[in-house]
Design a protein that fits this description.
- By secondary structure, the protein is mainly alpha-helical.
- The protein has 2 domains: 2-53, no CATH class; 73-311, Orthogonal Bundle (MetI-like fold), CATH 1.10.3720.10.
- 72% of the residues lie in helices and 2% in strands.
- The protein is built from 16 helices and 2 strands.
- It has helices at 2-25, 27-45, 63-66, 73-79, 84-102, 104-115, 119-130, 137-147, 154-161, 176-201, 205-213, 218-242, 250-256, 262-265, 268-278, 282-311, and strands spanning 56-59, 67-69.
- It has a two-stranded antiparallel ribbon.
- The two termini are 31 Å apart.
- The relative contact order is 0.11.
């Protein structure tokens, strides 16, 4: 036991020695890190102190520590809530369908953009597909209401012109998820290609030249050069995406929500907004948020573990 403790002590001593040398040699870089570390500490770690209100009956007059401790009462209330199953199912399905449909699109777009050799055309296309990302959520929802209006919307005008009947897209429950996902793809798919294009840009041009000499076609280059180089970054992005399967764009869902599509648009984020802000049930909604974050954390750990077992690629 004494020998083991001595070995541990020597390892710790060596670690601190290396850390000290690293700081002495690169202190300027550590100073540059201080603002970022301070930002993370103030906005990401200090607020964790307030998480305890999820286990208290928080009253602003008594403060956090002065409020009564109720344990898991708010969690139990949420699990027994009348709309719990609907909220959970709507949120999970909306994000799952969105992940399945929208996740591959930026990858495909990045691969095709990488094949464009004319620089001016490539820049024009990139600029065109990036622009929708800068449209605000409110404007995006307004565009949907305007284009899908049953009376004078361009979509229904085309449907009627082709002999069909006008559809109430924003009222029909079954149209909520397709509209949410399609508009999200249009708005963000182009912007999400940036990371994949950066990975493709980093490929050694000599590899493409060697493939050309060997007579490889463009599809063969994509299959044997582009895709293998994209796999690590794709896996990491997939892991991160799986960690948000219970987190949706609350602003967009709230703006798209109508009395007709409530059965599909009623997601956890909207519920937390209505109960937490509208009815000032801070402890209850904090408990919901903590529950969601724990589930997302478990999802990230699980998907990362599976990924490392399958292809030795993971976030950590």
């Amino acid at each position: 036991m004494r020998i083991k403790n001595n070995l541990v002590g020597k390892k710790n001593q060596k670690f601190w020695q290396r850390a000290g040398r690293s700081f002495h040699n690169n202190w300027q870089l550590y100073v540059l890190l201080l603002p970022a570390i301070g930002f993370l500490f103030v906005f990401n770690y200090l607020p964790l102190y307030g998480v305890q209100i999820a286990f208290r009956d928080y009253k602003a007059a008594f403060g956090i520590l002065g409020s009564k401790w109720v344990g898991f009462k708010h969690f139990v209330d949420f699990f027994n809530a009348y709309y719990f199953k609907r909220l959970l199912a709507n949120t999970f399905l909306l994000n799952l369908y969105g992940l399945i449909i929208s996740f591959p699109i930026p990858i495909v777009m990045a691969i095709f953009l990488n094949q464009i050799e004319h620089k001016k055309y490539k820049k024009f296309i990139q600029t065109t597909i990036y622009v929708p990302h800068f449209i605000s959520t409110v404007v995006m929802a307004g565009i949907l209401y305007l284009f899908l209006s049953p009376s004078n919307g361009i979509v229904n005008t085309l449907i009627v012109a082709l002999g069909g009947d006008s559809l109430h897209f924003m009222i029909e429950p079954n149209w909520f998820r397709p509209l949410f996902i399609i508009s999200d793809i249009w708005q963000h798919a182009g912007w999400n290609t940036i990371l994949y294009i950066a990975a493709l840009t980093g490929i050694d041009p000599g590899i493409y030249e060697a493939a050309t000499i060997d007579g490889a076609t463009k599809m063969q280059k994509i299959r044997h050069i582009d895709i293998p180089h994209l796999v690590p970054i794709v896996v990491m992005m997939l892991i991160l995406s799986c960690g948000s399967l219970l987190v949706s764009n609350t602003d967009k869902a709230l703006l798209m929500q109508t009395s007709g599509n409530m059965s599909k648009s009623d997601i956890i984020g909207v519920y937390v907004y209505q109960i937490g802000i509208g009815k000032a049930q801070f402890s209850y909604t904090t408990a919901i948020g903590l529950f969601i974050n724990v589930i997302n954390f478990v999802m990230i750990i699980s998907v990362n573990w599976i990924s490392k077992r399958l292809n030795q690629t993971g976030l950590f």
